[in-house]
Design a protein that fits this description.
The complex is a heterodimer. Chain A has two helices and twelve strands; from the N terminus they run αβαβββββββββββ. Chain A is of the alpha+beta class. The longest helix of chain A has 27 residues, at 19-45. Chain A is elongated. In chain B, strands 2-1-3 form a three-stranded antiparallel β-sheet. In chain B, α3 (99-121) runs antiparallel to α4 (139-168), α6 packs parallel to α8 (288-323) and α11 (379-406) runs antiparallel to α12. The chains are: A alpha+beta, B mainly alpha.
């Protein structure tokens, strides 16, 4: 009954199981169930669950909303690109545009306050990779993804694009300040 | 195309002339693409090594695109077609169905692979293997992939046809061998995979030539991954079949229980493709329930199947070794295994690495919430080099060493060097994957030319440890490339200069597989003894590592920003 020959016993499915196999299958099954319940458990008790709130959008619609936020809450500009630094009130809807090849605008948030962060891409797929926390979210054009975020540490965070988006991909980086 | 059957005097395997030529053609094409992919790997590795940072950005992205496609698709699928023909025509001792159509399939695959490669090197198609819309490549990029896929699909049906031939000509009795059963699993998954690829790549091709206006980015991602991930499941089914085959060849090992091993393959057919969903865990659009169900209930049945194979294959080896008298303590069977035989060593290094590095990391990544801490970081290529390179490629290399005298009828040149090859290649890849996952844990992005963001006012400074890890990725990568070069040297060298070996007895008719005498085991459900205690201990060590690593990641996740 070698693995490269047909089974010697016609009724191979009646061949008895070795206890090593039976025991391991039982252990492995239990472990798989533990892993399944962990995901559900975390949705109930954990604080880090990715929202799935999503809307169809267009670059024009989304830009208009982002621009309105920038017009209302810009506190200063940074870099030679005059990128606005926006400090929206706690609890509000905040917008970040991913496009070739930057994130716009810079956001300034308060620690332990909650915001509704809207993400979309103006062109290709992009990646929202928050460093050094290492939180990574896919940014897909045409879809507005609303993620509720609560920064728990103050500092300067970078948003690195980690989805390949063309020749300028490695220059695409944005920023979020947490006070 | 009249069939001549020869019985190999070294292995006892019977090769049909048409199948043999096709296996050789497909295997050689595979090795050619491995060579191209390997040369490209030098560019990738030496650019991502921060201290070297060799290629220019546009060249790097081009090279990375070609490396991914040549390795993940062309090298592996050409070799898999050879494996499918081997598992049908050779193991069942029958003629290959429709050899002319099989040659057509091969021709389509070669044309497709060449067209796709040319498109990438011309520039303008540096879209990576995933080629997410709306980023577009040249039409010939998609056309090449489609031609290749059609060829591979035809190859799958030649395999199914050959099974029918064997059944009709009664070249075997009872059920097909376990290894053939595994190949059937791979082939069923392949059909699903290729059809998914066609569903999304054909409209994308039409968009690239201007017939269709719009392909939705999220729909593309969803269907593309039914192709992109499932293609890796073909590999899993194929290389696990090879593990069983090598256990049988190197030890004369019998499967511990046909029921368990076949059941585990069946779980692959039913559940593996659904695991594709874990590529979309960080995406908008899909509901939480969809993500959790697809990546837990369904994926975990496939994980269960892999955990079963991970026990039953070394378990079968242990039982065979113990019967030969290597029965002392828990591990004499393993100590006295033929570690100097590259066929065995390659498979065992592959098995351990696939489980510990590829398996554990894969399940962690496939957990809905934990996915957020690694999505699109270099952890991801760290993981899939452990599954596809340590798992699939290393197994294929080990099988090649077996096939050089058996299928290619050549004496292996430089057998001493071949003994070292799986160790150098396998252990370099272990280290490569580990440091890559380490860098990914620190957040380093995949597919990224310049981690220093040189000249950018908002540049992010990665921690020093990330630079160290990426340097080690470079060093380990070079070790693996040298190991790969040795494999190609030995394979190509043996084919060209190795001493010709005797073909064996030839005949115009196939000799059917003689029925083997049934073993004495009672034909009843129930339990035998505890035949493989050493393997069980190894499995428990695996489980403990798995559980610890899994919960460490939850612990880390709990320290992050609140997200809901």
């Amino acid at each position: 009954m070698s693995a490269i020959l047909p089974p010697a016993e016609r009724l191979w499915w009646k061949h008895p199981l070795d206890r090593v196999e039976g025991t391991w299958i039982a252990i492995a099954f239990v472990w798989c169930m533990v892993m399944f319940f962990m995901m559900v458990y975390w949705h109930v008790y954990g604080r880090q669950n990715l929202s799935t709130e999503t809307y169809k959008t267009t670059p024009e619609q989304f830009s208009a909303k982002a621009q309105a936020m920038v017009d209302a809450y810009t506190v200063r500009t940074e870099t030679s690109m005059q990128t606005p630094v926006v400090a929206p009130p706690a609890g509000s809807d905040i917008y970040m545009i991913a496009r070739l090849w930057n994130f716009w605008p810079i956001l300034e948030l308060e620690k332990d306050q909650t915001y509704r962060l809207h993400l979309t891409s103006m062109d290709y797929n992009h990646g929202f990779s928050l460093q050094p926390a290492n939180i990574n979210i896919q940014v897909v054009p045409g879809y507005e993804h609303v993620v509720t975020v609560t920064p728990n540490q103050s500092g300067t965070y970078s948003v690195v694009c980690n989805e390949f988006c063309g020749i300028g991909h490695h220059m695409m980086v944005g920023r979020i300040y947490v006070k | 195309m009249a069939s001549i059957y020869r019985t190999c005097p070294r292995s006892g395997l019977q090769f049909e002339s048409n199948a043999e030529k096709l296996m050789i053609a497909n295997a050689v094409a595979a090795v050619v693409f491995l060579l191209i992919g390997g040369i490209l790997a030098i560019g990738v590795v030496l650019t991502r090594w921060p201290a070297v940072h060799w290629l220019e950005a546009d060249t790097f992205y081009k090279v990375l695109t070609a490396h991914g496609i040549d390795m993940l698709i062309f090298w592996i699928i050409f070799f898999e077609i050879a494996v499918l023909y081997f598992c049908s025509s050779t193991l069942l001792r029958c003629r290959l169905a429709t050899p002319k159509i099989a040659w057509l399939a091969f021709a389509l695959m070669v044309i497709g692979a060449v067209v796709n490669n040319i498109a990438v090197y011309q520039g303008g198609s540096s879209v990576m293997m995933t080629s997410y819309v709306p980023m577009m490549a040249a039409p010939s990029f998609y056309l090449g992939l489609i031609l290749f896929a059609v060829g591979a699909l035809i190859g799958c049906f030649v395999f199914f046809g050959t099974l029918v031939v064997a059944k009709r000509d009664k070249t075997y009795q009872g059920s097909v061998p376990l290894v053939t059963f595994g190949a059937i699993t791979a082939c069923i998954i392949a059909v699903f995979t290729i059809v998914s690829g066609a569903i999304i790549l054909i409209p994308t091709f039409l968009k690239s030539v201007g017939v269709i206006e719009h392909v939705d980015a999220l729909v593309y991602r969803t269907i593309w991954w039914a192709f992109g991930h499932s293609s890796q499941q073909i590999n899993v089914a194929a290389h696990i079949s090879i593990w069983y085959a090598v256990a049988a060849i190197a030890f004369g090992a019998k499967p511990m229980s046909e029921r368990v091993s076949r059941g585990a393959f069946l779980l692959y057919i039913l559940f593996l493709q659904l695991a594709s969903a874990h590529h979309l865990l960080a995406d908008p659009g899909m509901s939480t329930e969809w993500k959790v169900v697809n990546t837990s209930y369904f994926m975990y049945f496939a994980v269960l199947a892999s955990m079963i194979h991970g026990l039953t294959i070394p378990g079968a080896m242990e039982v065979a070794q113990r019967q030969k008298g290597y029965d002392k303590g828990l591990f004499e069977w393993l100590r006295r295994a033929p570690w100097g035989n590259p066929v065995f060593a390659g498979v065992f290094i592959s098995l351990i690495g696939f489980g510990f590095l590829g398996g554990i990391s894969g399940v962690m990544m496939g957990t809905e919430q934990l996915n957020m801490i690694i999505h699109n970081t270099i952890y991801v290529p760290g993981h899939f080099h452990a599954t596809v390179v340590v798992g699939t490629t290393l197994s294929f290399m080990a099988l090649t060493f077996y096939l050089i005298p058996v299928l290619f009828r050549r004496e292996m040149i430089n057998p001493k060097l071949a003994q070292w090859q799986p160790w150098l290649f396998g252990l370099s890849m272990y280290f490569f994957c580990l440091v890559m996952m380490g860098a990914g844990t620190l957040g380093v992005s995949r597919r990224h030319w310049d981690m220093a963001f040189a000249g950018n006012a908002l540049a992010y400074e990665w921690p020093g440890a990330a630079y160290l890890m990426m340097g080690l990725v470079g060093i380990a990568g070079l070790g693996a490339i040298i190991g790969g070069a040795i494999y190609i040297w030995i394979t190509v060298g043996s084919l060209l200069w190795g001493k010709r070996l005797d073909a064996g007895r030839e005949s115009r008719e196939p000799t059917p597989i003689p029925p083997t005498a049934p073993t004495l085991a009672v034909q009843s459900y129930g339990s035998l003894g505890f035949a493989a205690p050493g393997t069980f201990v190894l499995a428990i060590i695996f489980l403990v590592s798995f559980v610890l690593y899994y919960f460490i990641n939850w612990k880390y996740l709990s320290t992050l920003w609140g997200l809901s």
